[in-house]
Predict the structure.
Amino acid sequence: MVHEMGLMAWTLAAEGGQGAGGKSVLGYIHAGGVISYVLVLVSMGAVALMIANIVLLRRSSLAPDHVVEGLRRLVGERRVDEIPSFCATAENDSFLSRVIAGGLAKVGRSQFGLLELRPALEEAGARELDRLERINHGISMIAALGPMLGLLGTVGGMIGAFATLGGGSGAAKNEQLAAYMSVALVTTAEGLIVAIPCTFAYMIFKRRTDRLVSEVGDVAEEIMSGLAAPAGVAAKGAARAGVARSAGAA
């Protein structure tokens, strides 16, 4: 199967190598064969995920101002029963509202009431953090997948090159050998070109996620402290524990 893949790659490489004197980027991609085109598609997916992260990882997306003000008003007026319906509306859907609604839902089912606020928000925060980081996990997976695909192309090209050395002669043999070596080297380079930016982007987005979640945790602590105050200090700071600490655990 690998040899057949090598033959397909060589066919594409031979067609694209005629203008080897001054290859364009597309020419190098064509010279890399089937694996090269797969890496291009993977890189396009990585760019799409990065754009999605840029749009999602914003303070205004995780904790919109109108949601923060609405929750403050409801807590200040002690209208706790209205908080779940407020958070459930489409225009109020956000990281902050889902964490608070999830925590209060578990508190409502508990016989200990607000004493369960801290663990309830921790559980809700961990669940929402995992959801928030799914896109970043996709970038991390592509960062690991890129070099593997490049290595697959390298192995296929080397197998084809050694097979060429075993038979044929003259100019045709040299052309086939050069085509297979082109597949091996181009796919290796492309795999690294995909992996390096993805690794860098994953680290940047991870740090940004941690910072934003910590900021949202401060906001949640301020909101929920008014609700937890009558129950004593046991539930104080529960929102931050449910959001910021879950980020550290992840």
Remarks:
- The mean pLDDT is 78.
- The two ends are 40 Å apart (CA to CA).
- The chain has two domains: 33-56+134-208, 59-132+210-249.
